[in-house]
Structure formats: structure tokens, C-alpha cells
Amino acid sequence: MSDDIKPRIRVPAKAARGEVIEVKTLITHPMESGQRRDADGKLVPRKIVAGFAATYNGKPVIDLTMEPAISANPYLAFYLKVDEPGTLKLTWTDDDKKSWSTEAKIEIG
Predict the structure, then answer these.
(1) pTM of the entire predicted model
(2) Residue 48's CB: how many other CB atoms inside 10 A?
(3) Hey, what domains does the chain have and what are their CATH numbers?
């Protein structure tokens, strides 16, 4: 697997107390479904981003499992109600249990 796997996040830097914001995230990852064959006819082993979790100030926001049909470089968007300033942490995990995280601070203003 390449070393250029990068999770990205896009959220507003500031939100009003109680505002619902949209969180957009993408990770560059060369997904392999495990159903394709190589030049010798052997199955290429499955290697996908199999898990995604988000926390806000350490509290769970979303936790999901992905299946082989997920595309390469998966993009996700979800909504989050912001009641206090804090840090949103996103963590992606692949089949090999390798994980990548990114964080964004959100101010109340």
C-alpha cells in the first residue's frame, strides 16, 4: 500500500451554538475488492477502508463499517449539531487494521 494515503476534512471553522453543520471527508486509498484477478489469474487480496469513526470532543458521532462495494478514495458527508466549541476527529481503518486520522477545530461564534 502506498504511503500517500491522506484523510481530508472540510468543516466550517466557526458555527453558532446549536447549529447543524455539514462535515465532508475523503481519504485517498487504493481500494481492492478482493474479486479482481491479476495477470496470472490469482485473486488480488481484498484491501479496503473497512471502518470509519468520528468523535466530537471525544464523544462518538458516527461509527460505520464499509463493504467491498465502496469506491476507491471514499467520500463521506454527514451532519453534526455543534453545541460547544471542540475538536472533530475522524479515523479511517483498513482491512490490515492500519488507521489514519485527521482533526478539525470548530469555534462557537
Answers:
(1) 0.85
(2) 21
(3) 7-108 (2.60.40.10)
